[in-house]
Design a protein that fits this description.
about 500 residues, alpha+beta, seven-stranded antiparallel sheet, two-stranded antiparallel sheet, 16 helices, 11 strands, about 15% strand, globular
Length: about 500
């Protein structure tokens, strides 16, 4: 990175940092304002993900290293047998942020945004004085009023929580006043609190995402966009049903199509009697609509399956000369294309005869024995159907051009099996690719089958009590995350 880009990044960081510091938000007055790597001060609660991990004695490693010892004393375990003080800063920060990542995942599993929304709307309707005061303080009163009239227009929860942090009001008591339970929104408190502790540069994706939710004194939070009740299109131009004023439509055509379904609710909202025949007709039309939607989804899936079968057949019968296909990974490195791009993972599964997929891998830390500098972090965990032995396949995604084009396949970095078990922890080894078994007329699929079957033959089962060392956070849906060692965009 050049000097100019460093200055721009630093300036953006200071701009977003000042948005919080000017409102006196510091780590001393809110327990959620904690850097992701600050394992000594992360907020704890029963069943927070770390608590469950501590109960598993196999993850604890006795290492005479000051950082490892401090981590074990603070959270009850250390997830790596390697001395952290000897690691490079990026690897060390990743390990130190693991407790925060465990908590975040658990908090998301425990969240209930629907209940939080219902609670806030109910509190607004009964004019709870403390709730009204808080909403007025963060300029969200109008937005909640709109949402109380139209439940579909509830704004993003970050429009409430980010200003609460800015104004030093994000206490558990205030969160319970607004949303009923802290657990309903705790994952957002952890996410935003870590960004307050370490504000991402405002010109980064994470910074731009966070900036849109910042409190502005003369600007009220807008309600969510209006959704058409028939087609779902979001637009501020959508108009209300003139009779009940509870739903919106993007056009008269959509309103006509939806009328039979909407009529019972429309009459009820006006305090009118709803005839049984009207109600029954609405149910019948809704059922027909749901069935049509299911048929379309089934047809779409069938088309995708047929397309995959056709492409897999081509892979099975392709000519041997395609074994010499090459492409670039995202880092620009030129690698051999072992599997075509469309549903390449599914193709590996089909070619791995008598091996069942356990999970798709996006490794956070590599299992013992696998060098993280030599192999990609994406892959598959497979199970031998005969003896339940586990196998890991790691690969690199390949792209057209110099690595910046569309996807064009996978390069298999290696297939791994458990070599031995040391202190109830698996040590993995690479299964050497059987080049001597490949024939001149073997295509890519035939070579893949031979490699997978060699691994299947060499894989030995281990007791269930053995820690395989597979730390797999997975690939979540699109999310923006600022970390102490850079901004990270995750895409499923």
């Amino acid at each position: 990175m050049g000097k100019k880009s460093k200055r721009v990044r630093k300036k953006g960081h200071q701009q977003l940092k000042s948005a919080f510091s000017s409102l006196e938000v510091t780590s001393t007055n809110n327990k959620y304002v904690v850097a992701r790597t600050d394992f000594k001060h992360i907020p704890r609660w029963p069943n927070d993900g770390i608590e469950q991990e501590v109960s598993n004695k196999d993850v604890d490693h006795i290492v005479n290293d000051p950082i490892n010892i401090a981590l074990r004393e603070a959270v009850g375990f250390c997830p790596t047998p390697l001395p952290l003080s000897q690691n490079d800063p990026e690897s060390r920060d990743f390990v130190l942020s693991l407790p925060h990542m465990m908590q975040s995942r658990t908090a998301e599993e425990q969240s209930d945004l629907s209940s939080a929304k219902e609670y806030l709307i109910a509190a607004y309707k009964r004019k709870d004085p403390k709730v009204m005061l808080l909403l007025r303080e963060i300029n969200c009163k109008t937005a909640v009023y709109k949402a109380s009239c139209d439940n579909g227009r509830f704004p993003d929860f970050r429009y409430f929580i980010v200003p609460l942090f800015q104004k030093n009001l994000a206490s558990d008591e205030n969160i319970e006043l607004l949303f009923g339970k802290v657990s309903h929104v705790r994952h957002l408190l952890l996410e935003i609190g870590s960004q307050v502790a370490e504000p991402p540069p405002s010109n980064s994706p994470a910074g731009a995402h966070l900036s849109q939710f910042l409190y502005k004194e003369d600007e009220k939070v807008a309600p969510g966009q209006k959704a058409c009740a028939e087609c779902g299109i979001l637009s501020e131009d959508n108009v209300k049903c003139s009779a009940c004023k509870s739903v919106h439509y993007c056009s008269r055509d959509c309103q006509r199509k939806h009328w039979t379904i909407h009529k019972p609710d429309c009459l009820a909202a006006q305090g009118k009697l709803v005839p049984k025949s009207v109600l029954q007709k609405a149910r019948n039309v809704q059922t027909e609509k749901d069935e049509r939607k299911a048929e379309l989804e089934a047809q779409k899936q069938e088309d995708l399956n047929n397309d995959f079968v056709e492409r897999y057949e081509k892979f099975v019968h392709e000519p041997p000369d395609l074994c010499d296909s090459w492409a670039h990974c995202c880092r620009g490195k030129r690698l051999r294309v072992h599997v075509p791009t469309v549903n390449a993972i599914n193709m590996i599964e089909l070619s791995a005869i008598l091996l069942k997929k356990v999970q798709t891998l996006s490794l956070g830390m590599y299992p013992d024995g696998i060098d993280d500098t030599m192999y990609g972090f994406r892959g598959l965990e497979l199970e031998n159907l005969d003896n339940k032995a586990r196998i890991i396949v790691l690969f690199e995604r390949l792209f057209e051009g110099e690595g910046n084009g569309v996807g064009c396949g996978l390069h298999i970095d290696g297939i791994f099996v458990v070599d031995k078990v040391v202190k109830r922890r698996a040590k993995w080894r690479l299964v050497r690719e059987p080049l001597e078994l490949y024939k001149a007329n073997d295509n890519r699929n035939e070579r893949l089958i031979k490699y997978a079957q060699l691994a299947r033959h060499e894989a030995k089962p281990v007791p269930e009590t053995v820690d395989l060392g597979i730390h797999n956070p997975g690939d979540p849906d699109l999310s923006l995350m600022s970390t102490a060692f850079g901004d990270h965009v995750s895409v499923k």
